[in-house]
Design brief:
single chain; mainly beta; Jelly Rolls; 4 domains; seven-stranded mixed β-sheet; 1 helix; 35 strands; elongated
């Protein structure tokens, strides 16, 4: 029987003949030995794959990539038996830009986030195991080329190589590799540097958030262009993020952000971080970081201001200015923060402490009552008592009131004979047993002999004690109330002269920031 085979058109014959070649072209690039230097480098498509072998322990395989567009190049080489891979990245001038050696024999190596522009680059595969002997097993070198928008561009591991980022945007990167093998310091950890250029004129607040990454304890630092470190944020732990809030920016200016893992082996090539920045006009309602010292104090012109304690050991200084010749009483209220024991301090124009307020405990508010101020600058300082707590996500509110002083009101400081407050016989004065350890001294002049009664009304939580001194500061008499909340009365026959009265709680830990006492001196 005769079988007739139909004829095949010529164009189909051509396709059948070329099919194996097309399939081969779509597959991995095979290294072409010798490729032990840049002149012999095997050409490889950016975003493609290559396969090769390590013929002997000293074998190096160079691959040339002709990049045609801006992008983010990442590379990964699969481990093979007996070989300890080292992966390097070079520019067209054979300057080594990055080196990765994170694993040992048989391990994979990854090199993410390489910033590339149109031009020539080289990837170099080498071996670190001097006894390697696996010339036949093939490795696979895989590259990807992605859009550069919102991505880290390695190398950015120094201030000089800091990557410019938008003041209002997000950039994604990796804590990888864990070590900077090109540094002169053998213990240098990988760092990612970013520059934020504020081109507008004025005052701004910069907020920075770093997302959490498993296995990594991040540290965020802020530097000026002179290399001076302005702020360190390290409130979270392993697997937690970090946040910088209300960092003061005086534009136009440029700042550097340094992001790194706290621990040398902390890294994660699989899970990226997101670094988010936000630039807001400063309106005087929040602290203006850095305000950790007197010269950087945030101006406190409004009645209320918000702030945070971050990082641990943070101190926030606020400048209160009295610009008239009148006398005022300053009151300051500090809200509590979950998990923290905040303290409040009042300082003079040179930064010397006038009063320290630590009346309440953990998570409780603090209040400064009735402190006398005159024309000049004063500072309110907020801190955490232990110096070990911080939380950039939980803020406090500090409020202040400047009330005109008038006769009949206590004028702090009056806690010693050197700052004693004058009081006329027949008059009364209202004041507070605050802060803890407070004692109030008053002085009166008696112009005729007689019986003098000194009386203080009772307030909750305080057992008041009255002590009378003569002009030589010798104790004349002393008495205390029977219990907390009761008034106290001292009566004494006195000659003409000058006398001092000390009014204080029987226990220095007693205080009352809410209720005023009234002290009255009268002649019967």
């Amino acid at each position: 029987m005769l079988t007739i085979i139909p004829s095949i058109p010529f164009h189909k014959k051509l396709i059948l003949c070329l099919a194996p070649l097309l399939i081969a072209a779509c597959g991995p690039t095979g290294e072409r030995e010798p490729n032990g230097n840049y002149q012999q480098a095997t050409e490889m498509k950016a975003g493609g794959k290559a396969v090769g072998t390590i013929s002997d322990p000293s074998d190096q395989d160079w691959y040339r990539l002709d990049v045609r567009r801006d992008g983010i190049l990442s590379a990964k080489i699969g481990g093979i038996r007996d070989v300890d891979f080292v992966l390097s990245f070079y520019d067209k001038d054979r300057r080594e830009l990055k080196r990765v050696d994170e694993t040992t024999v048989g391990g994979d190596e990854e090199m993410p986030d390489l910033g590339v522009s149109p031009g020539v680059y080289f990837l170099v595969v080498s071996n670190k195991n001097p006894t390697a002997n696996n010339p036949t097993q093939e490795y696979t070198l895989v590259t990807t080329l992605e859009s550069p928008k919102g991505r880290e561009r390695e190398p950015n591991d120094s201030a000089l190589a800091a990557q410019p980022i938008d003041p209002d945007g997000t950039v994604r990167g990796h804590y990888w590799p864990t070590r900077n093998l090109l540094s002169d310091d053998p213990n240098a950890v990988e760092e990612d540097w970013y520059s934020v250029d504020v081109q507008k004129d004025g005052l701004f607040l910069l907020n920075v958030d770093v997302s959490e990454v498993p296995k990594v304890d991040p540290v965020l630092e802020v530097y000026d262009t002179n290399g001076y470190r302005l702020k360190t944020v390290d409130a979270g732990g392993v697997g937690e993020g970090e946040s910088l809030r209300s960092f003061g920016v005086r534009g136009p200016a440029k700042y550097l952000l340094r992001l790194r893992s706290k621990y040398p082996n902390g890294g994660n090539p699989d899970v990226p971080y997101d670094l988010m920045t936000e630039l807001l006009p400063y309106q005087g309602r929040t602290e203006f970081e850095p305000n950790d010292q007197r010269v950087d104090a945030t101006p406190f012109g409004q009645d209320e201001i918000d702030g945070t304690i971050a990082p641990a050991g943070d101190q926030d200084w606020y400048k209160v200015t009295v610009d008239t010749d009148a006398k005022f009483l300053l009151r300051a209220d500090l809200s509590g923060v979950p998990g923290m024991d905040l303290t409040l301090s009042l300082r003079d124009s040179l930064g010397n402490e006038l009063a320290g307020v630590d009346n309440a405990g953990r998570e409780q508010p603090e209040v400064l009552t009735g402190w006398g101020v005159t024309k000049g600058d004063y500072y309110l300082v907020v801190s955490e008592k232990t110096g070990r707590k911080a939380d950039s996500r939980q803020g406090y509110t500090l409020t202040k009131k400047l009330m005109p002083w008038q006769e009949g009101l206590e004028w702090e400081p009056n806690d010693s004979t050197a700052t004693v407050q004058a009081l006329n016989v027949g008059d009364s004065v209202d004041g507070y047993y605050a802060p803890k350890g407070d004692q109030d001294w008053y002085e009166f002049n008696l112009f005729q002999k007689g019986t003098v009664e000194i009386e203080a009304t009772g307030v909750l939580n305080v057992v008041p004690t009255l002590t009378l001194y003569d002009q030589e500061y010798n104790e004349v008499a002393s008495t205390a109330a029977a219990k907390a909340g009761d008034p106290v009365l001292l009566s004494r026959d006195l000659d003409r002269g000058t006398y001092d009265v000390r009014l204080a709680p029987s226990d220095p830990s007693q205080n009352n920031i809410r209720d005023k006492y009234s002290l009255r001196v009268r002649l019967k």
